[in-house]
Write a structure and sequence with these properties.
The protein contains 23 helices and 21 strands. It is an alpha+beta fold and 611 residues long. It folds into 4 domains: 2-179 and 591-608, Porin chaperone SurA, peptide-binding domain (Triger factor/SurA peptide-binding fold, Orthogonal Bundle); 199-236 and 454-553, Chitinase A, domain 3 (Roll); 239-251 and 357-448, Chitinase A, domain 3, CATH 3.10.50; 254-351, Chitinase A, domain 3. The protein has a 4-stranded antiparallel beta sheet with strand order 18-5-20-19. A 4-stranded antiparallel beta sheet has the order 12-7-16-15. Strand 19 and strand 20 (543-553) form a beta hairpin. Helix 3 (54-72) crosses helix 4 (78-105), helix 5 (111-120) crosses helix 9 and helix 16 packs antiparallel against helix 17 (380-389). It is globular, with a radius of gyration of 32 Å.
């Protein structure tokens, strides 16, 4: 069988997806310097001395992008493409690190293991293949007959199965080693069960630390610095940039709306003359989600629909096709498949209003002129010249790394990805083209992501520590109240000082409690103090409290035992996922990773600029 696996080499899509997207719970270029040319022999990263070729990164990115486009039913914008490139990069780095771990641990894969796994443990993606099912369930005999068939050899399935298992088996072996000592005891399960099921009801009085002036709670500078040094991980910041935008909108006019309406009327006539609504929706609808299921919107009530669509839909008889309905997102054709009480089972075809050819040509000419003057320019004044020539007003916006840029004109797809891919200050992007607009961006400033400097977060730290210090001071003032409450009652002491006693509903340990907060020492005291006992003042970030537990309901052993097996399975999965994430983060932190993507992108842009 192994010889058959190696007898063909046609790449099968499903195993590209399995190899690069799946995998064991885990979630520039050779000598590229400055403006060196980017070639297929370039290296996008080096991991512990192992090069990752640029071409490999491109191929993996393209494979994942194609899968994503198939899922969405449309092309990807620049920001989505950038996220996929990051995903592919991380997967390739992880693969190098895993190969190193296999060598260190002596993990190998024999031919016999590959054959056995291929015959008895099919990839998960194949389990849902309807051609391999009998009565709705995966049929192992059908699968094994497929493996022995000429079709499997001719389509390259066997060689891809071998590649898959030679990747998957060592991952599973490593996983088994990492997770060998993961276990959840009954005691831990019982404690977690109590945390979820125990409940308490308390009465409390709040003391507001904000009544203490800031001047009475000054925090020494050394304390601010110490807090920063001990909590640097709390001050991780995304990269941020300031860009100037020039926008040429694809403005639609009355003639565009009339042309679109005429197009929709033609689609309706096709359906009325015998065309199948579902087929027309799949072919023509601009709604990528409903188009794949024949335009189905499912069961909808009036409140879930655009007002105009609701009025039109509720006026239809079953199987009647509406006239064109103009809504906020374009023209719709609507059909009611069935009616149940006040809900309708609907299908629709959406046609967005776009520019006619004559109108689009005018917009495209302006965009072409904009690109000729300033696209990919390295001199910042070219951007200003384009704005003057085309009478465009630049818009200055802030962009955050990893987040799409939203503007008053819509999403400026691709601008964020470009700004953080190695662009230099003053550089202008290529022309970005979206369904609604053309965008041109100039990078005006850039702050790399990472740990924010102390100076940038000092004031935030001062506010936090000042609030905590005032809470401690207020706790001292509240101590005499707590003593009086224990001598009389919480209500009597509050009445003497004109304070309010608040009574809660029953709450669990992890519940947010209005007035008390969540997962703080006041919540803990509600479950630890004896019923009827009055606490000492408890200082939290939410305030200072004196509380009295009034009632508790505790979890029972009978209820615990009835669900313990399921709880253990869930807890084990959580712990296993956490252990693997921790393990992978650990080997990645220790690795020597040289990421050359930004230099690579900058060199590619310089290479593309006409000399």
């Amino acid at each position: 069988m192994l010889q058959q696996m190696r007898s063909a080499a046609k790449w099968i899509w499903i195993f590209i997806v399995i190899a690069f997207v799946g995998g064991f719970l885990f979630v520039e270029t050779s000598g590229l310097l400055g403006r060196d040319q980017v070639t297929t022999s370039s290296v996008v990263a080096t991991v512990n001395g192992v090069d990752i070729p640029y071409l490999t990164w491109v191929n993996v990115s393209n494979a994942i992008a194609q899968q994503r486009e198939q899922q969405l039913g449309r092309g990807l914008n620049g920001d989505e493409r950038r996220a996929i490139e990051d995903q592919a990069f991380d997967q390739l780095v992880t693969d190098v690190l895993l190969q190193e771990e296999y060598r260190k641990r002596g993990i190998r894969v024999s031919d016999e293991e590959v054959i056995q796994q291929a015959r008895t443990n099919p990839p998960e993606a194949l389990l849902a293949d309807p051609t391999l099912q009998t009565d709705g369930r995966f049929d192992i005999e059908k699968y094994q007959r497929l493996l022995a068939s000429p079709q499997a050899r001719q389509q390259g399935m066997l060689v891809q199965l071998e590649n898959y298992y030679r990747t998957e088996i060592p991952r599973r072996k490593l996983q088994d080693q990492i997770l060998s000592d993961v276990y959840v005891s009954d005691a831990k399960l019982w404690s977690a069960f109590k945390d979820e099921r125990d409940s308490a009801q308390v009465s409390f009085v709040t003391f507001d630390p904000s009544t203490i002036p800031d001047s009475a709670a000054i925090v020494p500078e050394a304390d601010l610095r110490r807090y920063y040094d001990e909590n640097e991980d709390r001050f991780e910041r995304r990269g941020r940039a300031v860009v100037s935008l020039l926008v040429i909108p694809r403005t639609v006019v009355a003639e565009d709306s009339l042309a679109t309406e005429a197009e929709v009327r033609a689609l309706r006539e096709e359906i009325v003359q015998g065309g199948k609504f579902e087929d027309v929706a799949a072919r023509e609808s601009a709604d990528p989600y409903s188009a794949t299921v024949g335009g189905s919107m499912g069961w909808r009530n009036r409140a879930s629909l655009d007002e105009t669509m609701a009025k039109a839909a509720y006026a239809l008889r079953v199987n009647e096709v509406s006239q064109p309905v103009l809504a906020s997102d374009g023209y719709h054709l609507i059909r009611v498949d069935s009616i149940r009480r006040d809900s309708l089972n609907l299908r629709h075809i959406l046609v967005r209003i776009t520019q006619t050819d004559s109108n689009a040509v005018k917009t495209d000419r302006r965009a072409d002129q904009l690109a000729r003057i300033a696209a990919a320019a390295t001199e910042r004044q070219r951007f200003d010249s384009a704005a003057t020539v085309l009478s465009l007003a630049p818009e200055t916006v802030q962009v955050y790394e990893g987040q799409p840029l939203f503007t008053g004109f819509g999403v400026a797809s691709g601008v964020s990805a470009w700004a953080f891919s190695g662009a230099r200050i003053g550089e202008t992007s290529d022309l970005f083209d979206t369904e609604e607009n053309y965008f041109l961006a100039r990078l005006d400033s850039l702050v790399e992501g990472g740990t924010a400097p102390f100076a940038d977060v000092r004031n935030d730290i001062a506010v936090l520590l000042t609030r905590r210090k005032k809470a401690e001071m207020m706790a001292g003032q509240a101590r005499t109240f707590a003593e009086r409450a224990r001598a009389t009652s919480l209500e009597a002491a509050a009445q003497e000082r004109d304070l309010t006693v608040t009574k809660t509903n029953l709450f669990a340990r992890a519940t947010f409690v209005p007035g008390l907060g969540r997962l703080n020492s006041a919540i803990g005291a509600a479950f630890s103090l004896p019923i009827g006992a009055t606490s000492e003042p408890i200082a939290t970030d939410d305030g200072v409290f004196v509380i009295r537990p009034d009632r508790r309901e505790e979890a029972t052993r009978e209820a615990f035992e009835a669900q313990k097996a399921v709880q253990r399975d869930n807890a084990m999965r959580v712990l296993q996922d956490a252990r693997i994430r921790e393990y992978m983060e650990g080997i990645r932190e220790q690795a020597n990773i040289k990421d050359r993507r930004k230099q690579l992108n900058a060199a590619a842009r310089a290479q593309a600029v006409p000399q």
